[in-house]
Amino acid sequence: MKKTLALALAATTALSTGAFAQEITEFRIGILGGENAQDRMNSYQCLADYTTEALGVETKLFAPADYNGVIQGLLGGNIDMAWLGASAYAATFLQDPEAVEPVLIKVNVDGSVGYHSIGFARKDSGVTSLDDMEGKVFGFGDPNSTSGYLIPSIEIPQYKDGVTMESGEYFGEVKFTGGHEQTIVAVNNGDIDGGVTWADAQGNWEDGYNSGALRKAVDAGLVDMNEMVQIWKSKVIPEGPIVLRKALPADVREKMTALVDGLYEADPDCAYGVASGDTRGFQPVTHDTYISIVEARKAKIGG
Q1: Which of 208, 237, 266 finishes a domain?
Q2: Which of 301, 233, 246 lies closest to 90 in space, CA to CA?
Q3: Of 18, 59, 206, 240, whose CA is between 20 and 30 Å from 152?
Q4: Which segments of the chain does DSSP mark as H helices, in order?
């Protein structure tokens, strides 16, 4: 562990790592979908290493195939911590309000704590806006994604009267691709005509913006953003929370909150991987930030 982070963590509590080992035998971090499982695991390995040193127990990473795998892992006590999207947090809260506690939120380079659902298409498709998508194939990511489903399914019909998200009513077909990376690859390959993903919408389009699924896809060499065009952008969405299971010992929750809170200052490269791009780190957050998303999900999906 880098010295600065080790010192910061040591200052948060006088408890020894042995005390943690008596209460928990391992710590399990769930990683929400958005890119392939191995890339997700690689991005989080540094955080796992820091966690093992901070808590004195083995840390395991879990990268389920879909968002629901992380949600159910948290609800069932099989995952201890995760960075959830706002809708995935709402789903968890609606099923069990006592399951998890939101503790931290990612901070963008400009100090804001929001992001956007971004609609995009290939530049050579001739699609420049949602007006050009009539009769074409539109891709969502995961049904538990905020930017990949919940928000666009609410805002796109508001954007253009008469648009519904049912196949054949405006779009020729509406598909779930399985996740953000899958949507980006499907658009890039011409398998679908347009889709939605997430980004902070800051920085340069050709870089995939500063952070988000587009930036991760650029970093992975999956897409050249000069071949893509933005066709829609949602209103600002509150960034999803880092959550911890409420059933964890209080000292473990305190230690992990401090670790992630200090990650950017101690190890910017590790924070880049965990936060899906450029960031100023994390700051405290509470459930109140997500009340509107909880209500939106309840109205749209029911749970």
Answers
A1: 237
A2: 301
A3: 206
A4: 3-12, 17-23, 37-55, 67-75, 86-95, 151-159, 180-189, 213-219, 250-261, 263-266, 268-274, 291-300
228 and 148 share one domain:
yes
Range of the domain at 206: 114-237
CA 57 to chain centre: 26
Name the phi and psi angles at 281, rounded to 5. Answer: 105, -145
Give the number of other CB atoms < 10 A from CB of residue 263.
Answer: 24
Residues 158 and 204 in one domain: yes
In the chain, the number of structural domains is 2
Tens of pLDDT, residues 70-115: 999 999 999 999 999 999 999 999 999 999 999 999 999 999 999 9
DSSP state of 222: S
CATH number at 262 reads 3.40.190.10
pTM for the predicted model, two decimal places: 0.88
